[in-house]
Amino acid sequence: MNLKLVDFGSICPLLVLCVTAFVVLIVDLFLDENEKYLNGLISLLGFSVALGWLYWVRDYQVITFGGFYIMDMLSIYFGILFCLIGGVTVLLSFNYIKIEGVNKGEFYVLLLFATAGMMILSSAGNLVMLFLGLETMSIPVYVLAGFRRNRPEGVESAMKYFLVGAFAAGFLLYGIALIYAAAGTFDIAAIAAFEPASIVNQKLFLLGIGFVIIGVGFKVSAVPFHMWTPDVYQGAPTPVTAYMSVGVKAAGFAAFIRLFYVAFANELFSVDWRMVIYVLSIVTMTLGNVVALTQTNLKRMLAYSSIAHAGYLLAALVPGTIEAGAGILFYLVAYAIMNLGAFGCIVLTSWKGREGDDLKDFRGMGWEKPVMGVVLTIFLLSLAGIPPTAGFLGKFYVFAAIIKAKYYWLAVIGILNSVVAVYYYLRVILAMYMEPAEVTVHPDDRSIFARGPFVAASLLASAALTLVLGLWPQYIYVAALRTIGHILPKI
Amino acid sequence: MLSSLYHYILTLVIFLPFAAALLIFLLPKNNKKMSLNFALIFSVFEFLLSLLIFKWFKINDAFQMQLGMEWIPQWGIIYHVGVDGISLFLVLLTTFLTMIVVLAAYSAVKERVREYLAAMLFLEFAMLGTFLSLNMFLFYVFWELMLIPMYFLIGVWGGERRIYAAVKFFIYTMVGSLLMLVAIIAMAWSYKAQTGEMTFEYAKLLNSELPIKAQLLMFGAFALAFAIKVPMFPFHTWLPDAHVEAPTGGSVILAGVLLKMGTYGFLRFAIPFFPEAVMKLLPYMMVLATIGIIYGALVSMVQPDLKKLVAYSSVSHLGFVMLGMFALTTIGVQGSVLQMVNHGISTGALFLLVGVIYERRHTRLISEFGGLSKVMPVYGTMFMIVMLSSVGLPGLNGFVGEFLILVGTFTSKAHPWMKAFAVISALGVIFAAVYLLWMFQRVMFGPVKNPANEGLSDLNAREVVMFLLILVFIFWIGIYPKTFTDRMEPAVNKIVERVAPMNVKIKTANVGVHEMRGEGNR
Hints:
The complex is a heterodimer.
Chain A: H1 5-10, H2 12-27, H3 37-56, E1 62-64, E2 69-71, H4 73-99, H5 105-123, H6 127-145, H7 152-183, H8 188-192, H9 199-219, H10 229-235, H11 238-263, H12 267-292, H13 298-317, H14 322-349, H15 365-368, H16 370-384, H17 390-404, H18 408-434, H19 452-471, H20 474-487
Helix pairs in contact in A: 2-3, 2-5, 3-4, 3-5, 4-5, 4-11, 4-14, 4-19, 5-6, 5-11, 6-7, 6-11, 7-9, 7-10, 9-11, 9-12, 10-11, 10-13, 11-13, 11-14, 12-13, 12-18, 13-14, 13-17, 13-18, 14-16, 14-17, 14-19, 14-20, 16-18, 16-19, 17-18, 17-19
Chain B: H1 2-23, H2 32-56, E1 64-72, E2 77-83, H3 85-108, H4 113-132, H5 136-145, H6 147-157, H7 162-195, H8 202-205, H9 212-229, H10 238-245, H11 248-273, H12 275-301, H13 306-327, H14 330-361, H15 372-375, H16 377-391, H17 397-411, H18 418-444, H19 461-479, H20 482-499, H21 509-521
Antiparallel strand pairs in B: 1-2
Helix pairs in contact in B: 1-2, 1-4, 2-3, 2-4, 3-4, 3-11, 3-14, 3-20, 4-5, 4-6, 4-11, 5-7, 6-7, 7-9, 7-10, 9-11, 9-12, 10-13, 11-13, 11-14, 12-13, 12-18, 13-14, 13-17, 13-18, 14-16, 14-17, 14-19, 14-20, 16-18, 16-19, 17-18, 17-19, 17-21
């Protein structure tokens, strides 16, 4: 294989993230404890440059490294989303890790590497590359989950995530091996063209698809591979939880879209995996929503809510149409914004030695700190899918696509699920506005500015974006439509 | 200047309360008076603006003062508003009642006044948007938007079990409306399959041809959403809770306008969209409406709590609205629309009256009162007129609505049992007289037994103005309903022609009575 300059050009955003990571690693050595914020600023710069670069080349399309690395609209769309998520996570972390006493440069380094892994995952043109991306993403996140290693929950979180993740990786690898055994190739484009020679061949391939679904299903916390989610989300540092819940999920769906829209799009197989995803999605959203009803810890509740959202997204994978795909892409952006925002509010309520993520901690907050109350209300209403928010339009696009494909029952079940979801999102709002305050927090700790300007800025921006996307979805939605139109096989 | 305002007036009317709801937060937090005055000025101005709509309204069946602006073009989602004879009066009712509620807030609301008013104004914005939307997507957005301020109004300023009531209200409404969303989307797709055009436009979707099976399912989804909102028996259980727990202003708006969303939805969307399904399900809807009338009235009779009594009387009155609507005659539907307005005014006023006494005594139990007319003569007079209007005394508004509905139902040829429904429902009028007069007697007449009632102050000037404004409309509709029925008629006819052509011959109210006689002779 001979490499050309264009090959390196296409992975530049990826290289930017990696180089930034190394720079932070080195710079960190020379920083005093009170200068550590520079680490964050450098990583923020890295994310911004990578994001700008991706935006600049947004209509680019090259397949490089012998088909291993694809730089097309899909990977750019996701790349931009990942950089955005990474950037917001950095903003949320500045103060948090300082207060938690884990203000280490490595935090940002791991974040940058994990994001690089996500970008590899969304650009993979080859199943081996897909696996590589998944692992590059996962390993730093395992470490991040246990970043507060002085705390038992932190260690539990990391340990659980790692063990389950390793297990999932095994499944994925086995699936890839089976697909290779059937199709004789790792290349996604070649797999898409694969015609089974015999019935055994076909069954082998289907089995491979099944294992791949399990492997990636762990990452997006689809039921029944979700067991780790609440514990890991609760134990991990809150910004990391935010990062996991949107970043890792988006990366998982990047893989799913690449696989289901390109690699396994063949009618011979799609009948079967559609059925599997159909059932998975219903089970996932129902379990996520029903169990979330009984949670009194906000982080756990949002963990189950993230399972439910994975269910809606899986449902949108079923039709395999252009509208459904665009719906997923739009939904992921909306979900990223509102979920980062919701976790950001929990970052605000936490203080040393106490997570501040219990429902009780939110009592009376709406009146005490009105700005934060309004902002969190916007995020929760958006998560519940009430107009005019981004979350509503995300659901609208997704369910409209499902209805168009005539999966009426799936749509009705999904819609009824969002009624269930309304209940637990409302519970937080009613704690904030309708229940008397319990003085458990120093009042200043609840201000939106209590954790410095970065958190406040990211929260206000996310809240504004949630509304703006809910009212003027055009720009993102058209981009999503074009992106999916681009990867669908030309008829 | 004015001519260019013609097209923008509806948008102005919709968004003005929204602007006011935001602007009110610029006022100082603790200055109650200033917030109240601000909201009052805005809501009076808003009402005057809506009178301009009334003035410009021409009597025909078209949507007027339309404005369309692109919103999400790929999906045929347009910001499209317009007013016709049906929505006209509901818009006026909304702006009128909001004004009254703001006036009532001077004494009714004790804490967080600024936020209360903001929620009220935001609610007004959402309600007006719902009535004026001509795009299904826009309609749905406003429809859902209404829930949020009402949820806060009940949950923050409500009574003892306010949280339970607020959540119940929200979830109940949500179940119905989300299924309606599925039906709306399915309609849009089926229209696209027929014509190749993706649209959520009301006028265009009216032309889509749906097989009867699809019609039945979609009608079911729409009807569930609206029936919960009305509320029709057996979907009414959220209503007493919400009413009892809501603050006075919340109850007034809830009964006065929010319940009309359901009946308006039936008339505007569910009935014209699915004519065949309507004809098929007509008897069931009539049965439910009749049960609602009788059941609501009977349950009202035994309520010890004034507010609960009024709440259940709403179930009965709204049953009349549904009855007249599904009679599918011009008179019946006209009566039904008129009764929506009447109920808004009369029941709104009843809730205000209950609120007045609650502010003074902090109880609403009928057994606590007695002989109030001696202590508070002005209050007693106002109460009597409003109560009689709710009973349906000729010369007051309630009579006209109920009469038209019963005549419309009796003459309807849409279903062979129509006469039976009319006769049974007429019992509801008698029951209404029973529970309201009995309540009035126990509260107002007799000796003043309870010493706590002795020193009660009568209505003050603000409250008198408030009720006099309401009385104007009670008498106006009662004595000269033509102002209202004339403007409704073309729009109502259009729906009747579309759904029940057999009823077209029975034209306006006055002509209708003659025709009814003529047919009787034949």
